């Protein structure tokens, strides 16, 4: 009975794991943004930015510490003094200074009053967090692009498989026609054998495309962080191309540009932090504590045991004014400026690259739409040619080669149509990327 119960539990878990999940593009993207390591690490970087801000802010806050130092002096240092000091003229007297035990316990408070580097670093830390936020957004957009490409690759594999299955059905139908003609003595045995060979080749292609589909689905599952044993299916209607009404672009909205602007800002803050080395610094310090001295361990002894305690306190103002450091700061400022100019050059180059990508995406989109229209016409024409060729073959006006060629032409036309649709979708993704609107794939599907 226990084995039977465990068997039912295992069978139920297996059935649950094999349930097919219908996956839209929006759901695939959402799953990837939630489960992929890249997205998770980008979110952790945002938390890292908060920690960096807190770390820099701590330099501007009061610093309170407690220091305790207890030491035992088995041999006290002796100093030779004139005997007149002790009523022994003409003699030298050795005097030991200090006590066998000393214990110093001090509370210290320090507060920065002015330090330009600290103030500049705090502003730079806030910019660093903003940089991490933008970098997380860019990472998500890159994930969206990869998922969308993998998603439509699955569609292409599915469509290619359907085309191959349709071709197999067409070839099987041709075999039935030739079998009928052969039985009636109107076709040759070699024609029947050749169509059977053609069907076997098409059937082999079907199995290969089934493997291709499995590979494409596994790639998609990896891209979105889904277990490989999870079965998925994709809705058919989302593969149909749709002309995008809005083809305008504003490159300032691109996350890449915002990220580079923020990098440039960070470099400028770095330069300001270096310039801050020219500024003086001022800090306040205060100390209060107790000092214990005597022949015994001071911690638990007092005057009655030969240990004497006294308190002490001090307040100080520390001012540092830089005067000359061999032009080291000047050199670092120059290095910072060089990095800023290099970043500005990269920014200009990025603008040009984005403009090129946008123009190319528009051209590819229009070309692929034209190609889709052309291939749709080719598919219709190929179907008509195949039907006419079959009819002509039955009346002795066409050869078997004509039929096989017509079948291959129809399959090729369907595959070309499938590829044109995929190319259109990929061009559509490139256009959305060039417009900075990749997130609409997650919102509108």
Chain-averaged pLDDT: 84
Radius of gyration: 41 Å
Strand content: 5-15%
CATH class of the domain at 26-61 and 115-150 and 233-279 and 322-443: Mainly Alpha
Largest sheet: 4 strands, antiparallel
Order of helices and strands: HEHHEEEEHHEHEEHHH
Figure out the total of helices: 9
**Can you tell me the CATH architecture of the domain at 26-61 and 115-150 and 233-279 and 322-443?**
Up-down Bundle
Helix/strand/pairing class, anyone?
Answer: alpha+beta
Write the CATH fold name of the domain at 26-61 and 115-150 and 233-279 and 322-443.
Answer: Outer membrane efflux proteins (OEP)
What's the N-to-C terminus distance? Answer: 49 Å
Q: Determine the fraction of residues in helical runs and give it as a percent range.
A: 55-70%
Q: List low-pLDDT spans.
A: 13-17
Instruction: Please count the beta strands (DSSP E, at least 2 residues each).
Output: 8
Describe it for me?
This protein has 445 residues and is of the alpha+beta class. It has a domain of 241 residues: Outer membrane efflux proteins (OEP). Strands 2-5-7-8 form a four-stranded antiparallel beta sheet, with no helix packed on it. It has a two-stranded parallel ribbon with strand order 1-6. The protein is elongated. This is TolC family protein. Pfam families: OEP.
What can be said about this structure in brief?
With 445 residues, this protein is an alpha+beta fold. Helix content is 63%, strand content 15%.
């Amino acid at each position: 009975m226990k084995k039977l119960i465990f068997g039912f539990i295992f069978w139920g878990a297996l059935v649950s794991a094999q349930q097919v999940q219908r996956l839209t593009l929006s759901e695939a993207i959402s799953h990837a943004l939630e489960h992929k390591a890249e997205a998770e690490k980008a979110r952790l970087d945002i938390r890292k930015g908060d920690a960096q801000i807190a770390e820099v802010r701590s330099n501007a806050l009061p610093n309170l510490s407690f220091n305790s130092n207890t030491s035992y002096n088995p041999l006290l240092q002796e100093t030779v003094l004139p005997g007149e000091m002790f009523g022994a003229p003409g003699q030298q007297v050795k005097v030991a200074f200090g006590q066998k035990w000393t214990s110093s316990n001090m509370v210290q408070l320090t507060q920065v009053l002015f330090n330009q580097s600290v103030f500049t670093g705090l502003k730079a830390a806030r910019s660093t967090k903003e940089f991490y936020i933008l970098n997380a957004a860019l990472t998500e957009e890159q994930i969206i692009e990869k998922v969308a490409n993998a998603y439509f690759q699955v569609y292409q594999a599915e469509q290619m498989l359907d085309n191959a299955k349709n071709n197999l059905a067409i070839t099987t139908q041709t075999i039935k026609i030739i079998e009928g003609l052969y039985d009636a003595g109107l076709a040759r045995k070699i024609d029947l054998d050749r169509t059977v060979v053609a069907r076997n080749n098409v059937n082999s292609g079907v199995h290969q495309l089934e493997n291709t589909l499995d590979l494409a689905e596994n790639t998609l599952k990896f891209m979105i962080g889904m277990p490989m044993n999870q079965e998925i299916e994709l809705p058919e209607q989302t593969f149909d191309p749709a002309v995008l009404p809005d083809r305008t672009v504003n490159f300032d909205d691109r996350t890449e540009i915002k990220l580079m602007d923020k990098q440039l800002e960070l470099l400028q803050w770095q330069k300001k932090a270096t310039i801050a080395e020219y500024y003086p610094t001022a800090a306040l310090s205060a100390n209060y504590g107790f000092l214990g001295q005597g022949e015994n361990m001071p911690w638990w002894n007092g005057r009655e045991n030969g240990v004497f305690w006294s308190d002490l306190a001090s307040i100080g103002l520390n001012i540092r004014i830089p005067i000359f450091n061999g032009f080291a700061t000047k050199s670092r400022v120059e290095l910072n400026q060089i990095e800023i100019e290099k970043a500005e050059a990269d920014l200009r180059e990025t603008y040009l690259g984005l403009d090129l990508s946008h123009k190319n995406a528009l051209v590819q989109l229009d070309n692929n739409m034209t190609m889709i229209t052309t291939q749709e016409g080719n598919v219709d024409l190929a179907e008509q040619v195949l039907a006419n060729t079959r009819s002509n073959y039955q009346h002795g006006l066409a050869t078997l080669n004509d039929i096989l060629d017509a079948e291959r032409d129809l399959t090729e036309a369907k595959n070309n149509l499938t590829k044109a649709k995929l190319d259109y979708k990929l061009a559509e993704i490139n256009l959305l990327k060039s417009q900075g609107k990749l997130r609409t794939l997650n919102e509108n599907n």
